Each structure stands twice: as structure tokens, then as C-alpha cells.
Task: inverse folding
């Protein structure tokens, strides 16, 4: 599932192709909205909210989409051939005189009133890339259950909106603790939250999730995806196991302190 910085980049691309222009093409290929036609409505903006996308149109209508694991938005210049996937995977087509956005394999496609956006994103915690970021509320939610493992808390979108499995592994490494450390034992929760914001902000306009400062392949992340490879800091082989909802966890047994699976 994409991280919040990837969703921010998608929103930027959708805004570049659509915002400020009236729709010349409106095609919803999902049963719930197969008869919907927004042709002629001006696209106001696409707003990222955690891992959700809210595309707003004049007249108080919003398109809510979520990529989950397999969804993807692709934008094309006027007249450019669509080359990103077979037609049967297309769920939404939005076109203007400035460009076309095609949504492939989107698992969530929902039209709703803009005034009712809270129904689909109101449950989210503070958005790490949002203009209304609230550090105090984020800290409160993170520490609400002091016994909860750090990795599980970071992945909970009710706590923080925008963190996926890459950052749920990289942030504990940068904090020097394992993903299984109870959040109540964090040495500096504020430093971790500030680091999370900095990482997502640094990556919000580029593909990939560089956490080491080195964009070369194989050097972008400290531990994520590096099972059995040497730690970039100390050389110890990176270990892997499962954590929240059977997601893969990675950690360096030398650089990170705290509970960890045995065996």
C-alpha cells in the first residue's frame, strides 16, 4: 500500500493535469456510478488526505479514491496514447483540454457531496503532510495505549495518517528501537514524530522513499527490504519477521534495542 508521500505526489500530478479546467471526458466504469456524468464541471483540486485522494469539482461534488495495494492513477498529455494498462482495468477516466487522468484497478471509487467528505476521511489521525498538522494530537494518539507495539501504532491510520510499511520500519531504526517496543517506552516520541514529518516531506515530490539520504538502488533504506543484507550503519545482517497484520518487519539487532521475536 502506498505511503502518504506517494499519494501526495499522485495528487500533484492530478492537479497538474486537471485542476482549473472543465471536464471534457467523464467516464466511471464502476457499477455504483456507471451513469454519472461530470462533463462540463470544472475541476477545483485534488487533495491528499493520508492515503486517500479527494478530487473536488464545482457544484459541491467530490470523487474519493483509494489505491490500496493495486490501484494507480496515470496522467497523459492531450493526444498521448494510454500505455499504462489494459482497458478492462480502467475504473475512471477524467479528461480536460489540459490532460487526462486514468485510474487503473482502483478498489475505491466513490462520488459524494464535498460537504460530506468527513464520512470517508473523518476517522483519520493527524495528516503528516497536511496543512492542519497537529503535533500535540498526534503525540496523544500515539501514546494512547502505552503497551501497544510501535510498528502497529505507526501503521494505524487512526493514529497518524500517511505511514505505510516502509516508514513503519525505517522510523524505529532511526529511533534506535525495534518495531515491537511499547510506545510508552519510546525515549523521545516528539523526535520520532518530527522525523516522520521530515521524511515524508522530503519524499513527497519524488518517487520512492529515500530514508538514508542516498538515492542509489540498494542504499535508499536502512532496513526495509534488506533482510539478511548487512546493516548500512554497522554491518550486522538485517533480520526480518512479521508484525502488525502479518506485515513484514525489518530490524538491525545491533542498532535497535527492545523486544524482538526469537528464533
Result:
Amino acid at each position: 500500500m502506498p505511503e502518504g508521500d506517494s499519494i501526495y505526489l499522485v495528487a500533484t500530478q492530478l492537479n497538474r493535469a486537471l485542476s482549473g479546467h472543465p471536464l471534457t471526458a467523464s467516464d466511471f466504469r464502476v457499477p455504483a456510478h456507471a451513469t454519472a456524468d461530470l462533463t462540463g464541471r470544472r475541476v477545483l483540486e485534488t487533495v491528499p488526505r493520508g492515503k486517500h485522494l479527494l478530487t473536488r469539482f464545482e457544484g459541491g461534488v467530490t470523487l474519493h479514491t483509494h489505491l490500496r495495494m493495486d490501484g494507480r492513477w496515470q496522467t497523459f498529455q492531450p493526444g498521448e496514447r494510454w500505455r499504462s494498462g489494459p482497458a478492462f482495468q480502467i475504473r475512471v477516466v477524467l479528461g480536460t483540454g489540459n490532460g487526462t487522468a486514468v485510474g487503473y484497478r482502483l478498489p475505491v471509487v466513490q462520488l459524494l457531496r464535498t460537504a460530506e467528505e468527513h464520512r470517508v476521511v473523518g476517522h483519520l489521525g493527524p495528516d503528516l503532510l497536511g496543512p492542519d498538522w497537529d503535533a500535540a494530537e498526534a503525540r496523544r494518539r500515539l501514546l494512547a495505549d502505552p503497551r501497544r507495539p510501535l510498528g502497529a501504532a505507526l501503521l494505524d491510520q487512526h493514529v497518524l495518517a500517511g505511514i505505510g510499511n516502509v516508514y513503519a520500519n525505517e522510523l524505529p531504526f532511526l529511533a534506535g528501537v525495534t518495531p515491537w517496543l511499547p510506545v510508552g517506552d519510546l525515549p523521545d516520541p516528539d523526535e520520532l514524530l518530527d522525523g516522520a514529518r521530515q521524511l515524508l516531506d522530503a519524499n513527497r515530490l519524488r518517487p520512492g522513499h529515500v530514508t538514508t539520504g542516498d538515492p542509489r538502488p540498494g542504499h535508499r533504506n536502512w532496513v526495509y527490504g534488506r533482510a539478511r543484507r548487512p546493516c548500512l550503519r554497522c554491518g550486522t545482517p538485517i533480520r526480518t519477521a512479521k508484525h502488525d497484520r502479518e506485515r513484514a518487519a525489518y530490524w538491525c539487532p545491533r542498532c535497535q534495542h527492545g523486544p524482538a521475536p526469537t528464533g
